[in-house]
């Protein structure tokens, strides 16, 4: 059974017994689509391929429809011109109720409720430490750690061609560089021992993540509980307090959790582990896809590499085999075509469902003419992947065009639906209240990773492989992984 299907079923487990109970419909409610058995019928269809399911229902029922899935009413808004009205409804449509429930279940900490006064607000306030002026030290630290790992593991080799798996390589470099940047270094070494064990456990946990989001009890998932416990135990406060050079973001969270006697050490560690997942779970697949697309489009790769070399030359930045390159946020900002290639990969490979839960019965204003009745507890869902692959907005939507987001030497932001300019045309990071607080850092670190491999390595795909395809089990949850890893060759460039 696909994890997305389990997600749909599991999310709503408590309502299982109520599924056959209908409700009296009001005239202004959107068209309601029920399965022959409301519980299984629609959930099965939806779980198999959400994109196809939603496209077909949009064709039959229009841009706004409600699906009764597993006894719960989910209203899908399919017209991206209506998105702004939904996104600004922060008060009546809440995101955190849902995310808090799902995250505490998946990562194993107690839900952030009034039992911990002020904790929710402090956590949210802390997200600022991933943005604005705080982005500079974070990005600089990432650059240093990326070079440290890359140099020791890849640069200190002879320059013959070598074969590797692409996802595996992206993951191993980013896992350690991210860990060092976020949580810091051990007392008397520049790298932590046991990283590869931690990384292996992380990959195993990550595979089960969609099932945990679906609220499938962890005891049903084989060794996942033991693996999660090992991962969490890595972040126990007595261990973390020995590490130096951690990010301001993690240091602040560490001190914040220490104020709560009601949180056990294990709970605090589980919160830290959740951030490890947040900072890697989408970033690594995003890095994989942009690397894959560039390597499989050599002319795009050459263009992006040339742009990078020009930016470095004009800024007087030197690098060589023996000298680490240092890209600051100011350099990264100038990489217009690289950013476009990253956004194009996110357009093709991200599928983050935006979910809001109605806090009361109310009439949701859709546009100047229309509104839709929603009831307390109903889910309102945006599924931006449908917009990302809409041929009216993006010509030839299945094709990777590295320069799709550049126009006349500037960032292109004008995309249209029915002749109207879209406010939201690319949404890999969610929207409004739930928008990813790490998005600026994510784009910076993806650029840094690409810069390092493009500057120091020649890269080629191994022949005789079919095209990489998406593993749909994560559809709805973020950037999708490749169904299978890709083999490629690399060698050191003469720099
Ligand atoms: C390409 C990389 C990334 C993508 C596509 C991404 C996407 C997202 C999305 C879609 C959400 C909202 C979840 C939802 O609506 O259900 C989210 C939340 C979050 N992300 Fe990211 N993210 C990325 C990288 C990062 C990084 C690098 C960090 C941190 C260092 C981070 C930290 C967070 C946190 C803490 C939240 C939860 C926010 C909250 O509870 O309000 N993300 N991310």
Q: Which descriptors would you attach to this protein?
A:
globular, alpha+beta, Cytochrome p450, binds protoporphyrin IX containing FE
How would you characterize this protein structure?
It contains 19 helices and 17 strands. The protein has 495 residues and is α+β, with helices and mostly antiparallel strands. It has 2 domains: 3-116 and 353-421, Orthogonal Bundle (Cytochrome p450), CATH 1.10.630.10; 119-347 and 426-492, Orthogonal Bundle (Cytochrome p450). A 6-stranded mixed sheet has the order 1-2-3-10-7-4. The protein has a 3-stranded antiparallel sheet with strand order 5-17-15. The chain has a two-stranded antiparallel sheet with strand order 6-16. α8 (166-183) crosses α14 (283-296) and α15 runs antiparallel to α17 (336-349). The longest helix has 21 residues, at 135-155. The termini are far apart. Mean pLDDT is 90; it is low at 14-20. The site of protoporphyrin IX containing FE has 21 residues, from α13, α14, β6, α19 and β16.
Number of E-type strands: 17
Main β-sheet, spatial strand arrangement:
1-2-3-10-7-4
What is the domain tally?
Answer: 2
Radius of gyration, taken over Cα atoms and rounded to an integer in Å: 23 Å
Residue share in helices? 40-55%
Structural class: alpha+beta
Proportion of beta-strand residues:
5-15%
Number of helices: 19
Bound molecules: protoporphyrin IX containing FE
Sketch the major β-sheet: 6 strands, mixed
Characterize the overall form: globular
* CATH overall fold name of the largest domain: Cytochrome p450
Average pLDDT rating? 90
The CATH first-level class of the largest domain comes to Mainly Alpha
In whole angstroms, the N-to-C terminal distance is 50 Å
Low-confidence stretches: 14-20
Based on the structure given, which CATH architecture of the largest domain is correct? Orthogonal Bundle
Question: For this structure, what is the CATH homologous superfamily of the largest domain?
Answer: Cytochrome P450
GO molecular function, one term: heme binding
Subcellular location: Endoplasmic reticulum membrane
Cofactor: heme
Pathway: Lipid metabolism; bile acid biosynthesis
